[in-house]
Amino acid sequence: MVVDNSKHASSFRDPSGYIFTEEGVIKRAIFPIYFKQYNALTTSGFFDSLFKNKLLIPHSEITNAVDKIVIQPENISFITYPYEWSFNMYKEAALLTLKLQKYSLEKGFTLKDATAFNVAFHEGKAIFIDTLSFDFYQENTPWRAYKQFITHFLAPLVLAHYHGAQSLKLMSNFIDGIPIKMLASMLPFKTKMNPFLYSNIHLLAKFEDKHNEDYKGESKASVLSKKGQLNIIQSLYDYIKKLTLKEHSEWGNYYDKTNYSNDAFVQKSAIIDTWIENIKAKTLIDVGGNDGTFVRKINTNLEQALVCDIDNNAVDFNYKTIKENKESFITPFVLDVLNPSAAIGFQNTERDSFINRMKDFAPDVTLALAVIHHMSLSGNVTFDMSAKFFASFSKHLVIEFPKRNDSWVQRLLNSKVDFKDHFNWYALENFETAYTTYFEVIEKKPIANSERVMYLLKPKHVK
Amino acid sequence: MHFLYFDPGLGAMIVQAIVAAVAGVVLFSKGLMYKIKTLLGFSKNQEDDMFDDIEIKDQDTENK
């Protein structure tokens, strides 16, 4: 038997086709079982209309044979997963799925699945990436993907509304959506008084519980008019569109709270700007990039900038700015650098780890601004460990080191109380010793009138 | 025709009739409230939403 390693590890559920990589390019093979749907979607202009509206990833047909059609979708250079989205990113992905289902129904099609992993963020927008998710609609049948939509989209969003944006992280454990019974149990009692939440969550949980032992399929298949299904879709859309977080964004005035004088701030962004220009960087990742402020100060034209932060609100703020400015080069996502997204799913290969995705993305430069003191003092990560981490995926590293006397460092140190002396190693000399083991220093610049020093570093193994 | 590669949930299929009925009532009453408010002049100006409507336009989006 020939083992085909090119097949993508996440592409095994849907028998309509599969994704594979050929010479580094992502392609999709379609089997005869899906030819009828594919041809109908193509000739009716359904695909075209979605391409033009930037709702479905565009593809071109590479080969068309009797046993297999191969298409090549537009490349998305960095995939983010649902558990890395901010609240409003999650909302956009949910609304996109509903939009597509409504449009499908109007055109005689339906989405046969509704997993959150069918959506990616591309050029500043949510985009549907599973081209083979569309099937023919059969009159008066309910939506097969309804439960999946609830567990993948409504569940995390409603939990985030009641319990905070951190609930969205639950998706990293429940790869096929949040279990409906658990979801119902986690919601406050008053949600039972809300007709929308009662019917879509509590009643659904009851029905699922009641019918889960019907192995013989004795219960009758149900009937639902198209109008009825459209009502469900529209009410889900209306509810999700209005959904908000109760918590306040901490980041709105973040840069007012820091110990930067306006002058130091300008100086810091000027240093970054010059270095980015000198090394001719086109792609970057800003680790701990808050709301993307410093990335937006870069004058060089970047092809893509990943901006991640541990704080969902900061990422959300960044995402809103992207929407307002209609920017297409920034990809924001939520990431805890002390616990980056792991590889999950069958054989731990369906959803890739952050580290692996970074190695593939291979950014020209990594920015680590005002992040080393958090890693060292809050996370107890030694300089040697963080240097090794950054060196593993960066072609260049721009790192900012706040010295011991910096007020923020002092604050973190004071919070350690008796344990404070343990952190005597947090000093500029030790930082330089550890980092020069892995990097060569290209440039070093102190920021005037501050306790901070900027470094431009290059890993020693990169020639 | 249908590829049963994941379990749609039997309860979830049956419950949709009820969910749709509830949604119908909710949508109808909201529409009615909106009309009444507009008539009485209470209606707010359309907020500047971050997300647009559910409708997808056919073809005519070249100039977007």
Please explain how this structure is put together.
The complex is a heterodimer of chains A (463) and B (64). With 463 residues, chain A is an alpha/beta fold. Chain A contains 16 helices and 15 strands. Chain A has helices at residues 35-43, 46-52, 87-106, 146-163, 180-186, 195-211, 226-242, 254-257, 262-278, 293-296, 312-325, 354-361, 372-378, 383-391, 407-414, 428-438, and strands spanning 17-22, 25-30, 59-64, 69-73, 109-111, 119-122, 125-128, 134-136, 283-287, 304-309, 330-334, 365-368, 397-402, 439-446, 452-459. The model of chain A has no long low-confidence stretch (mean pLDDT 91). Chain B has one helix spanning 10-40. Chain B is flat, with a radius of gyration of 19 Å. The two termini of chain B are 37 Å apart. The model of chain B is unreliable at 60-64 (pLDDT under 50). At the A-B interface, helix 2, helix 3, helix 4, helix 6 and helix 7 of A face helix 1 of B.
- Hey, roughly how much beta strand do the residues of chain B contain? under 5%
Q: In terms of per-residue confidence, which ranges of chain B show pLDDT below 50 for 5 or more consecutive residues?
A: 60-64
Mean pLDDT of chain A: 91
Indicate the CATH class of the largest domain in chain A.
Answer: Alpha Beta
Number of discrete helical segments of chain A? 16
Overall radius of gyration of chain A: 25 Å
The count of DSSP E runs of length 2 or more, i.e. the number of strands of chain B, is: 0
Number of helices of chain B: 1
Question: Average pLDDT of chain B, to the nearest integer?
Answer: 77
- Note the gap between the termini of chain B: 37 Å
Oligomer: heterodimer
Residue windows where pLDDT falls under 50 for at least 5 positions of chain A: none
What is the name of the CATH architecture of the largest domain in chain A? 3-Layer(aba) Sandwich
User: What level of helicity do the residues of chain A show?
Assistant: 25-40%
Helix/strand-derived category of chain B reads mainly alpha
Strand content of chain A: 15-25%
